[in-house]
Structure formats: C-alpha cells, structure tokens
Amino acid sequence: MIIREFEFTLKDGRKALIRSPKEEDIQGMLDYLYKSAEETDFILRYPEECSRYTVEGEKELFERMNSSSNEAMLVCIVDGKVAGNCQITWNNRIKTRHRASVAIALLKDYWNQGIGTRLFQELIRIAEENENILQMELEFIEGNTRARALYEKMGFRITGVGVNAVRLKDGTLLNEYHMIKEIKR
C-alpha cells in the first residue's frame, strides 16, 4: 500500500518527510538496518545478522509492501537519510482480519524529535480506515521504557508477557511485552 507522502517539522526545526519506500531508499535502508541494530538491544537483531539484507531483497520488500492491499511500510527521511521506519500488516482470514501488527524503529540521532509519534499517527490512520481492523498489536522488550511510553501515549496497553522471550549474547534473558490498541468504531 502506498501512502500519501507528507512533511512535518521536527522539534529541532529540521524538516522530515514520511512516505512509502522508494528504490532510491534501498542503500539508506540497509545503512539504517545495520546502524539501528548497533544502537540498542531492543531491536530483535544484532548487526552481524544484517548481512542477510541485500539490495535485491530490499527492492523486493519495497515492491511487495507498496503493491499490497494489507500491509504498508513508511520511511522517515531527514536530511536525505533514513531516520526510521514503521510498518503495519494484517491478513484477510475471517477469524483474524480484525488484528493488525505494527512495528517501528528510529535511529538514536532522531529520538525525541516527534518522529515516533508522527509515524504512529499515520499507522493509526491506516488502521482506522480499514473497517475490519479492530485492534493494533505490537511487542516491546523489557527495559525499553522509551518505547513503552510512546506506545502508551498512543493508546496501547499491555495485554501479556512472553517470559524470557529474548536472550542477549551475554546470556541475559528479557521478557517481551505484548500490547494492543483497540480501534474505536
């Protein structure tokens, strides 16, 4: 699904562009995937696991997302660079088409600039425009208080926990919390 692109102003005054990914974003997205994996343990990949991402794979992903009727990816571009992205996916099975899964990540340089809020507003708009979607779902890793605060601000609430769902290289086990946001109809 392709979304209508739009600009907005970050808290520091810079301009940001949110839009569906384009072929010209492929290298920027690959750089973003590596860097975001280096910056935090709250993303479910380590940098060395990013080698599976390729130019061809990203091109196929962008094409699939942009031509889909039940998923969308959004990228946020600041100063010509991918600052973050998010996506929403749902299926058309009768029993579960009321559920949409969402995910988001931002590079550390762009935290606290309003990007996460603006991306979530767009994800919520997409969900609200689909009459079948009754709830949005996501997960976050124990200790990610910044993400949790954003999700709660956007109307999500914790509904469950995956105990010891994540194991870091040093052996630390972390819980994964499940959240939903109900779409008011």
What does this structure look like?
A hairpin with a 5-residue loop joins β1 and β2. The longest helix is centred in the middle third of the chain and has 15 residues. The chain is globular. The protein has four helices and eight strands. The protein has a single domain, classed as 3-Layer(aba) Sandwich (Aminopeptidase). The model has no long low-confidence stretch (mean pLDDT 96). The protein is of the alpha+beta class. It has an eight-stranded mixed sheet, sandwiched between helices. The protein starts with 5 loop residues before the first strand and ends with a strand.
Unreliable stretches covering 5 or more consecutive residues: none
Corresponding CATH architecture? 3-Layer(aba) Sandwich
CATH class: Alpha Beta
Helix/strand structural class: alpha+beta
* Rg (C-alpha, Å): 16 Å
Question: How many domains comprise the coordinates?
Answer: 1
General shape: globular
- The chain-level mean pLDDT equals 96
* Helix/strand order, N-terminal first: EEHHEEEHEHEE
Q: What proportion of the residues form beta strands (DSSP E)?
A: 25-35%
Distance between the termini: 22 Å
CATH topology: Aminopeptidase
Largest sheet: 8 strands, mixed
Spatial sequence of strands, sheet with the most strands: 1-2-3-4-5-6-8-7
Q: How many strands?
A: 8
Number of helices: 4
- Overall helicity: 25-40%
The CATH H-level homologous superfamily: Gcn5-related N-acetyltransferase (GNAT)
Keywords:
about 180 residues; alpha+beta; 8-stranded mixed β-sheet; 4 helices; about 35% strand; globular
